[in-house]
Amino acid sequence: NEDAKALYVGNLHPYVNEAVLQDIFSTLGTVSEVRIVKDRATGNSAGSAFVKFEDHQAAAIALKTINGRILYNKEVRIQWAFQKEKTENTASHSHIFVGNLSGDVADPVLLQAFQHLGECSDARVMWDHSTGRSKGFGFVSFRTKEAAEKALAEMDGAQVGQWKIRCGWAHHKTEAVTGLDIDTVDRADPANTNVYVGNLPTEVMEEDLRAAFGAYGEITGLKPCHKGGYGFVTYRDHSAAVQAIVGMNGKELKGKMVKCSWGR
């Protein structure tokens, strides 16, 4: 894919900063962006980065030349940030939604996390191409429904990258059960981080909402309305709200199937 210009750089020593990477990679071509992935809790390097070149050829040379080099006594691992192409048609495969992805998880990392389960045909992280940053969720495809079900059972809550992920049915499964698809939900105002939760049981408390919705991202506000049977969950990030709407719509909470949409 001649459009591929971004590299995922992993296994970095904490001493490696953006200036160091800029110096190293710019010897092979014009670098348009270098971004160290930060640990959300500490603000320090998470040991990985993304490097984007102006052209594909320079990125390809960097991948071949620098991958495996020793930097501060650590062997640098480099992969394409995005999979170059699908190896097979996955239209008829079973797909799962993977949410709460940390910023250091690129396509190859997501694929590697699920490959051991068998029958994994594709893995894609969704990216905001205007910023070059992950939207915090992605999709993994399996050749059989049984393999996808196994992935849901074993990987929901597993650690991938820095955070524990959330898994659920996606694409045709999501649309059939909940009437929602990720692309439609994501078209909302990017400034909106407020999720409306309907059909709530009257006994649901703030701690119940936090337990159910907290895995999708950092929550900044909770407001259950017991008399009305609804509530609101506000996130710090728009992408977390997108994940929560798609992931929680149609899920059971204290015996009732909740309905999620954008709040105001």
Automatic annotation (TrEMBL):
Top-rank taxon, per record: Eukaryota
Pfam families listed in its UniProt record: RRM_1 (PF00076)
Biological process annotations from GO: nuclear-transcribed mRNA catabolic process, nonsense-mediated decay; regulation of mRNA stability; stress granule assembly
Keyword RNA-binding applies: yes
Keywords attached to this entry: RNA-binding
Listed Gene3D superfamilies: 3.30.70.330
GO cellular component, one term: cytoplasmic stress granule
Domain RRM: 5-83, 94-172, 193-264
Stored InterPro entries: Nucleotide-bd_a/b_plait_sf (IPR012677), RBD_domain_sf (IPR035979), RBM42_RBP45_47-like (IPR050825), RRM_dom (IPR000504), RRM_euk-type (IPR003954)
Transmembrane segments annotated in the record for this chain: none
GO molecular function ontology, one term from the record: mRNA binding
PANTHER family on file: RRM DOMAIN-CONTAINING PROTEIN, TRNA SELENOCYSTEINE 1-ASSOCIATED PROTEIN 1-RELATED-RELATED
Official protein name in the record: RRM domain-containing protein
Organism encoding this protein: Coccomyxa subellipsoidea (strain C-169)
Phylogenetic classification of the source organism: Eukaryota, Viridiplantae, Chlorophyta, core chlorophytes, Trebouxiophyceae
